[in-house]
């Protein structure tokens, strides 16, 4: 009898090769050892927030979220689920919103990655951030960076989105504190301000 | 007295003049960094040379541990340490009320996911591989997963299987009513599902002690439990609050704290640990599942005569805060109604299910599903309007709880009900509604012709702060000095855990209000420089830490008056405080803060204790609670009965807040609490199969999204609480209590079904009355 059963592994971490495998946990762990815990990707470059960043000594299996947070010091994208369910790690990959937890970092080579830090730096979501704060859309704040990226992306694509469309577009971003009321209020505020400014 | 949100604010003294004192919509001090992604949460910490920790957890619900062999893990490159029960130098157990929970399981495991060992390695993947490589030989045992059965079963723990049996006997137990209704109700296991998973960074210190940066609700009680298990004096265990990504009760108990410290001390290196979402479901306690029976007696006129209840809470494998949860369940089992006679029989029981403890609403949530369903049943039996029945029996000030306690504070039950009912109802469902607005939402699954509308009401009551004789206090220190720019600056030192609720905002508002200074800094919360603030739970910090800050400021004002008296050579009694100045009543002379602080800083510390409470006696009687909070909710739902799909259309509420110190933040608490209430009513449940957790992920444990949350219409009922600073009650828990029962009532109204279980699952509606499905074939038996 060994320590773990893969199918009901209580931590449920997505181990390399685990998802498709019915192998007992110790065999999976063995495979991992054979592959080598430190088989490295070699140095590679990522284009992040308009800058070329070099990633060294990284393991090939690292997610884009891990590399951003733990190797490049960009901890704005969050790790609420690391399963692509919560949107807290939302970043733009070649201008499309993705969950950074579900993208391998090495698959982002050659793409442009923009994080909440980049969006903030460019100032393109300053009104979204200000509206979230003014409306009371920030409590614990763990989901906030993901919402900033998602709202920024939604309103540049669909500036006049109606309430249901906004709700649908943001339904991939979980918030446990606010019940979304203040966040949706902030979106309405930005829509009004922008349409007013455009007149 | 009831007012809709955005109340006009008439506020005394200086804070209001600054525009950011008590009652204002002051901005969060941590808001900008949070919105920019720059705020450091506990999972964002990083240190040169740090290792990554990982926990090994039991795959069994109940088993004997025959052997643990860490050597295969230690053979993996980059692995620096493995710790097990044998490596715990001090007390091998911990616990909020009684230390009955092992730091690591040694001889037996009592629940699925119980920690058995932890490892530290250079890379998180190496740590995960190492945790898997530890060889543990288990001898599985038959688990006990039913609370009723556990009462009769052999002990699962040396402390036995009964955590607490509490009986409330109130009034004439033989009394009967003309009309009697009874019912049985079940509530499933809810998870706090805070967004920021458990995480922290432990750093070994030169003095042999440890610094732990961690997300928690109560720094000092964590520290004391860690110190006991490390066998260290508490002052060498220094806790620092790292950014907390939500809590809702789930961070009251120790999770990774002791493991992290053991790994850091064992390796001599900083160690970071971050739970995955799956592990988070195993790493903290949940809301107690409940099985409840109620019998309500009333006169023909609709006056409650007696409430009888039997409540069984499944506490899971370890005690946690079960004793206090079951006390709340018993005390508030009748709901916010005048009940002259009651017999409440309540149990909290140990089983091999995951441990349960604190979650927003803390015992009052479960019983609310029962007492509110009963009130509707009683109204039907009496042929009376359910709102009218509630208004008729509503508790008032100076009424008694079934514990015999006279309620001396504000109890605006009727006002809350009327405020909730006063909100306009949403338009009826229409064939012109976009399909996404129907039950099934984005799935576009309901046809308009099948949709039925229902409306339900529920009302709740819960205690604020800690009860039953607990010495509940909070400490704060305020320092007032001339800042670098020459302007006066106040600094607040408190160990109050900011978990998202916005206490940091209130702390600034209170100091601005009391001292008239615009600049208020908040020192980082920790255990090194200040005494306990108590827990950020039980809706208590506005009252408790708020009170400590308010009274520390009052002490500073007295010191400043003394300085002015010395400077003018007059009696202190001839001076008074006005805004940010000391005024001489006789001469009208004024001394401002700049002059008063020229001789140096002023500092004061206050330890705020609330009015003492007493333990319940053998009959469950006694003044066990400081005060109560009330809320009423009206829910409107659309249901497709054939598909079992529910869409919550609107929730309206009236909430007793005492006084709204920051209306925007109060609204945020109300909307967020209602979201969690709706979650428990229609979608959130940790599903267990013989004790095994089946859905530890956000894929399978569903929390409400933007598409699930309805519009919320909220009214603050502001009747100041006599004992509370500024008259403000806590506001966090009430919205999470009766919102769910109101939704359930609305679904009953739409479908005509009994629906005695929360959450309501689609099959509970769609297959009601159908033959039960055979699990194996999926076909009716």
Describe this structure in words.
The complex is a heterodimer of chains A (199) and B (781). Helices cover 38% and strands 11% of the residues of chain A. Chain A has helices at residues 25-35, 64-71, 116-122, 126-135, 144-157, 163-169, 181-198; strands spanning 44-48, 51-55, 90-93, 96-99, 112-114. Chain A is elongated. In chain A, α4 (126-135) packs across α7. The N and C termini of chain A lie far apart (71 Å). Chain A is α+β, with helices and mostly antiparallel strands and 199 residues long. The longest helix of chain A is centred in the last third of the chain and has 18 residues, at 181-198. Chain B has 781 residues and is an alpha+beta fold. Chain B has three domains: 11-39 and 473-609, Aldehyde Oxidoreductase, domain 4 (2-Layer Sandwich); 43-142 and 197-244 and 251-283, Aldehyde oxidase/xanthine dehydrogenase, a/b hammerhead (Aldehyde Oxidoreductase, domain 3, Alpha-Beta Complex), CATH 3.90.1170.50; 290-467 and 616-766, 2-Layer Sandwich (Aldehyde Oxidoreductase, domain 4). Helices cover 25% and strands 26% of the residues of chain B. Chain B has 18 helices and 32 strands. In chain B, the strands form eight sheets. Chain B has a seven-stranded mixed beta sheet with strand order 4-8-2-15-12-13-14, with helices on both faces. A six-stranded mixed beta sheet of chain B has the order 10-18-17-16-11-32. In chain B, a hairpin with a 4-residue loop joins β27 and β28 (645-656). In chain B, α16 crosses α17. Chain B is globular, with a radius of gyration of 27 Å. The termini of chain B are far apart. In chain B, 62% of the residues are buried. At the A-B interface, α1, α2, α3, α4 and α5 of A face α2, β2, α4, β9 and α8 of B.
């Amino acid at each position: 009898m060994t320590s773990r059963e893969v199918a009901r592994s209580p931590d449920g971490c997505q181990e390399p090769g685990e998802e498709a495998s019915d192998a007992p946990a110790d065999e999976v762990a063995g495979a991992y050892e054979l592959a080598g815990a430190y088989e490295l990707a070699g140095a590679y470059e990522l284009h992040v927030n308009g800058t070329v960043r070099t990633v060294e000594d990284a393991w090939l299996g690292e997610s884009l979220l891990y590399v951003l947070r733990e190797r490049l010091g960009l901890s704005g994208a969050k790790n609420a689920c690391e399963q692509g369910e919560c949107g807290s790690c939302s970043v733009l990959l070649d201008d499309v919103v993705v969950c950074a937890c579900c993208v391998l970092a090495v698959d982002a080579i050659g793409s442009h990655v923009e994080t909440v830090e980049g969006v903030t730096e460019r100032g393109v979501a300053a009104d979204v951030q200000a509206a979230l704060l003014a409306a009371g859309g920030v409590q614990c704040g763990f989901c906030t960076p993901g919402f900033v990226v998602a709202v920024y992306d939604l309103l540049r694509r669909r500036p006049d989105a109606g309430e249901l469309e906004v709700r649908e577009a943001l339904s991939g971003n979980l918030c446990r504190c606010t019940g979304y009321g203040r966040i949706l209020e902030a979106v309405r505020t930005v829509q009004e301000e922008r349409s007013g400014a455009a007149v | 007295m009831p007012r809709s949100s955005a109340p006009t604010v008439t506020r005394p003294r200086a804070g209001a003049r600054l525009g950011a004192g008590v009652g204002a919509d002051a901005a969060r001090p941590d808001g900008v960094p949070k919105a920019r992604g720059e705020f450091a949460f506990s999972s964002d910490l990083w240190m040169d040379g740090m290792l990554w920790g990982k926990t090994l957890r039991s795959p069994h619900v109940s088993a004997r541990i025959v052997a643990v062999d860490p050597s295969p893990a230690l053979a993996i490159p980059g692995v620096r340490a493995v710790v097990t029960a044998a490596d715990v130098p001090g007390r091998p157990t911990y616990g909020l009320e009684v230390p009955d929970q092992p730091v690591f399981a040694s001889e037996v495991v009592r629940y699925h996911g119980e920690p058995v060992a932890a490892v530290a390695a250079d890379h998180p993947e190496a740590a995960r591989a190492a945790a898997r490589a530890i060889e543990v030989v288990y001898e599985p045992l038959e688990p006990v997963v039913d609370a009723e059965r556990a009462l009769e079963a052999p002990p699962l723990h040396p402390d036995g299987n009964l955590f607490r049996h509490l009986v409330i006997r109130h009034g004439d137990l033989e009394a009967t009513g003309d009309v009697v209704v009874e019912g049985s109700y079940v509530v499933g296991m809810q998870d706090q599902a805070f967004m920021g998973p458990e995480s922290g960074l432990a750093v070994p210190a030169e003095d042999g002690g440890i610094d732990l940066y961690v997300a928690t609700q109560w720094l000092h009680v964590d520290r004391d439990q860690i110190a006991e298990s490390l066998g260290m004096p508490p002052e060498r265990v220094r806790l620092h609050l790292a950014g907390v990504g939500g809590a809702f009760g789930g961070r009251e108990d120790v999770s990774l704290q002791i493991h992290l410290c053991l790994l850091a001390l064992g390796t001599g290196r900083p160690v970071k640990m971050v739970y995955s979402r799956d592990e988070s479901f195993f790493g903290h306690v949940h809301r107690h599942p409940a099985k409840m029976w109620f019998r309500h007696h009333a006169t023909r006129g609709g006056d409650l005569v007696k409430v009888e209840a039997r409540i069984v809470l499944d506490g899971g494998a370890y005690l946690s805060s079960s004793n206090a949860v079951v006390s709340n369940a018993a005390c508030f089992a009748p709901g916010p109604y005048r009940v002259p006679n009651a017999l409440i029989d309540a149990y909290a029981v140990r089983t091999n299910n995951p441990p349960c403890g604190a979650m927003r609403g803390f015992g009052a949530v479960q019983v609310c599903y029962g007492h509110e369903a009963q009130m509707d049943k009683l109204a039907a039996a009496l042929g009376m309007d359910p709102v009218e029945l509630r208004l008729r029996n509503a508790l008032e000030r100076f009424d008694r709880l079934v514990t015999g306690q006279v309620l001396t504070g504000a109890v605006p039950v009727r006002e809350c009900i009327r405020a909730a009912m006063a909100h306009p109802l949403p338009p009826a469902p229409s064939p012109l509604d976009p399909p996404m607005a129907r039950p099934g939402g984005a799935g576009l699954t309901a046809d308009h012709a099948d949709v039925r509308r229902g409306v339900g009401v529920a009302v709740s009551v819960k205690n604020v702060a800690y009860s039953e004789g607990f010495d509940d206090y909070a400490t704060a220190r305020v320092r007032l000095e001339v800042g670098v720019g020459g302007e006066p600056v106040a600094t607040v030192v408190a160990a109050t855990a900011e978990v998202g609720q916005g206490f940091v905002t209130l702390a600034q508002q209170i100091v601005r209000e009391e001292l008239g200074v615009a600049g208020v800094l908040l020192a980082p919360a920790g255990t090194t420089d200040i005494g306990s603030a108590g827990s950020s739970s039980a809706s208590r910090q506005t009252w408790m830490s708020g009170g400590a800050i308010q009274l520390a400021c009052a002490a500073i004002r007295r010191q400043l008056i003394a300085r002015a008296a010395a400077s003018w050579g007059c009696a202190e009694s001839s001076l008074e405080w006005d805004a940010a100045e000391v005024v001489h009543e006789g001469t009208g002379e004024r001394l401002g803060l700049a002059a008063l602080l020229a001789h140096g800083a002023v500092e004061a510390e206050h330890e705020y204790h609330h009015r003492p409470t007493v333990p319940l006696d053998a009959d469950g009687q006694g003044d066990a609670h400081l005060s109560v909070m009330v809320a009423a909710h009206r829910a409107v739902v659309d249901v497709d009965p054939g598909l079992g799909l529910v869409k919550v259309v609107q929730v309206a509420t009236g909430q007793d807040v005492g006084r709204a110190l920051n209306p925007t933040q109060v609204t945020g608490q109300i909307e967020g609490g209602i979201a969690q209430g709706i979650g428990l009513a229609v979608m959130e449940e940790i599903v267990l199969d013989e004790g095994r957790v089946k859905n530890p992920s956000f894929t399978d444990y569903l929390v409400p999204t933007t598409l699930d949350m309805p519009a919320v219409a909220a009214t603050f009922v502001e009747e100041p609480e006599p004992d509370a600073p500024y008259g403000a009650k806590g506001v966090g828990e009430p919205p999470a209590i009766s919102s769910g029962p109101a939704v359930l009532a609305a679904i009953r109204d739409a479908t005509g079904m009994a629906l005695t279980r929360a959450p309501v699952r689609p099959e509970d509606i769609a297959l009601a009355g159908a033959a039960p499905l055979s699990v194996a074939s999926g076909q009716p038996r």
